[in-house]
Amino acid sequence: MVMDFSFEAQKTQQRLLSELDFSPLTSKQKSIFTARLETNFKPLFEQLFPLYQHHFDLHFHLKTLLQSFIDFQKKKRPAQIKDKSDFWFESNKNVGMAVYVDLLADDLGSLIDKIPYFESLGINYLHLMPLYLAPEGNSDGGYAISDYRTVSPNLGTNKDLKDLASALHKKGIRMVLDFVFNHTSDEHRWAAAAKSGDQEYQDYYHFMGEQDAMEYNQTVREIFPQIRRGSFTYLPALDRHVWTTFNSFQWDLNYANPAVFVAVVEEMLHLILNGCDVLRLDALAFVWKEKGTVCENLPKAHNLIKAFKACLDIAAPQVVFKSEAIVHPDEVNKYIGTDECTLSYNPLMMALLWESLATRQTSLLYHSLERSFKIPEHTTWVNYIRCHDDIGWLWDDAISGRLGMDGFGHRRFLNQFYTGQFEGSFAAGVPFQENPVNGDCRVCGTLASLAGVENAVAADDPVLLDHAIKRIRLLNGINFAMPGIPLLYQGDDLGVLNNNDYLNDPSKAEDSRWVHRKKLTEQDFALAQDIKTPQGNIAQLVQEMIQIRKANPLFAAPEFELVSLGSPHVFAFKRQMGDKTLLVIANMSEHLVSFERPLNSIMQKDSAHNLLNKAVVDLVTLNTIEPLDILWLA
To answer: How many Cβ atoms are within 10 Å of 209's Cβ, its own excluded?
Structure first.
């Protein structure tokens, strides 16, 4: 017998409404809330039922959940941003930056003093890396949360965070926070209770015997193989293994337990109370486990995330989710949708831009984006060149295979190239988490060091330096022009180089990602003000590109098309808005390259403006592009 979900959802909703306490709400608040509930309860029920249909207490958990939504409506939040448009993320005026509070400033209070810098640069989307209470020493960069409701004391207080949100909102800057919902730290109160033998809280995590752990380890992949083999940590005091996908101090939550879902939703609402506009869903591919699978990207993970989104639509519809799925491109796209994640990181484009710079070839980039770039209406990519994490070479091996590339061998080449082990490499990256069994590896480094600035400065070679800065201009030129929100990583706007100070800190020395997590200094900002320095050149080109993007609505054009110009070294695409066209052409090589197609036939015009230098271009005669150059033709 097939269940009639609409009927069952309506029946359950009516029963719950009769049991809920609406006394905290005014009649207007109750009316608004019940209207949202009427629209979104069925989607919530449809997603939770496959997960928890066998739990006799599901009704209790639903009631607890809805009551928390009601109570949330009365709680005071910082002043909200004035721009209330539903699809704000589709605007060309969006430019983002990801920052560590204590690396860009000192604390939340002093970060308010950086708002004029964000304004001058054109930032209106600020992602604050994890800032909640975490273990002393190694906390995976703050991604081991000990208390979602307490700001780390070295950064300030909850009030400081709310004050920052208000200050950002007054300047039209949206605040993004991490929602670390796959795991907590082993110091979280839930974990502490589990360690003490509390069975209720042991059910919040995945505790099991050695045999079960061994069986799971047969099919799951190792994320940090240099730190710990397998995905479990043994607890001698309990004689049990606990699931720890990442570090031993990060315990994976057990979402097969509905109490965990309800508890984590309540933590999510607290994050929203601090004034955030976007929640980044950390490690969302790992949230559901089933024996005999890789325990990544499972169908019920999507049920879970859609359930979280339905909760958001009921309790705080002005907030949107951003997906962080650093997995196979086909899987990345499955998390993107108006019923799941409105925004999504674009790890494929990031990795393949670096691949194209190393090979001077664009075929893998073209073929991959052709398959994977299109996403549903009213969702958008968050495009980036670098981030707080490593670069993983994620592409579809079926595509590289059709192009005659061996996926494993090509990744090995890229790792060697970007860690300076390949002859002729321009890069000064650092390897991250090399797997001793299969040789898999990722790469760390700042934009400037990976693009060649560090090596060029060390060699005192002006030609190499010119090439390096052109690569940075090229990457930013693509990033700012592609559909989506361009995201800068702190310091890349200043041309900051790799920093090895982390090697002197025992809590960081084994995590090479800290090579690009530098504490920014007044000298870094001063160098970026001096046009005679590489840093000054980089800062200027970034700022000019942002200004051009924000001034031209073509960068919000809805129509996007990859364009082939007949050269293996060129990447080009077209964006269309009515009768207006933006054609972007990038040369990934250090040589002059010719086009096989006339540009006037692509743009249906004989002339255009190059937005990057304000020159009028004759499209009939323009048939070459300079080495490592990029054109924005409008």
So the answer is: 10
SS (H, E, C) 260-275: HHHHHHHHHHHHHHCC
The neighbouring-strand residues paired with 251 are: 184
**Structure tokens that stand for 323 in this block:** 């997906």
Look up 522 and say whether it is catalytic.
no
- Convert the pLDDT of each residue in 64-110 to its tens digit: 999 999 999 999 999 999 998 999 999 999 999 999 999 999 999 99
Continuous H helices in 218-346: 258-273, 299-315, 329-334
User: What's the pTM value of the predicted model, to 2 decimals?
Assistant: 0.96
pLDDT of 296 over the 70 cut: yes
Does residue 229 surpass a pLDDT of 80?
Answer: no
The proportion of the chain whose per-residue pLDDT surpasses 90, expressed as a percent, equals 95
* Closest C-alpha to 583, from 606, 566, 599, 567: 599
Three state DSSP letters for 434-476: CCCCCCCCEEECCHHHHHCHHHHHHHCCHHHHHHHHHHHHHHH
Q: Say which residue, 226 or 596, is predicted with more confidence.
A: 596
Helices within 113-188 (DSSP H only): 115-121, 158-170
* Residue 602, token pair as written in the block: 């692509």
Going by pLDDT thresholds of 50, 70 and 90, the confidence category of residue 5 is: confident
Candidate list 324, 340, 454, 524, residue with the active-site label: 324
Q: What CATH number does domain 555-633 carry, 1.10.3210.10, 2.60.40.1180, 1.25.40.10, 1.10.150.20?
A: 2.60.40.1180
Predicted pLDDT at 226: 63
Question: What is the rounded CA–CA span in Å between residue 277 and residue 283?
Answer: 19
* pLDDT of 438 strictly over 80: no
Question: Could you read off the pLDDT of 341-400 as tens digits, one per residue?
Answer: 999 999 999 999 999 999 999 999 999 999 999 999 999 999 999 999 999 999 999 999
Tokens of 512: 């090479």
Structure tokens at 473: 């201009």
Query: Is residue 46 annotated as a catalytic residue, yes or no?
Result: no
Q: CA 461 to CA 453: how far, in whole Å?
A: 10
Catalytic residue among 178, 282, 296, 389: 282
Instruction: Give the rounded percent of residues in the chain with a pLDDT score beyond 70.
Output: 99
Residue 436 has pLDDT above 80, yes or no: no
Q: Has domain 88-183+263-553 been given CATH number 3.20.20.80?
A: yes
| Spatial CB neighbours of 541, under 8 Å, sequence gap ≥ 6 | 469, 472, 473, 476
Give the tokens for residue 50: 């496959």
Rounded to whole angstroms, the Cα distance separating 238 from 205 reads 14
So what's the pLDDT on residue 439?
Answer: 67
The pair of structure tokens assigned to 17 is: 């409404």
The 10 Å Cβ neighbour count of residue 54 is 7
Domain spans of the chain, in order of start: 1-74, 88-183+263-553, 555-633
Kindly give, in sequence order, each residue whose CB lies less than 8 Å from that of residue 355, ignoring residues fewer than 6 positions away: 364, 365, 393, 395, 410, 414
3-state secondary structure labels for all residues of 15-77: HHHHHCCCCCCCHHHHHHHHHHHHHHHHHHHHHHHHHHCCCCCHHHHHHHHHHHHHHHHCCCC
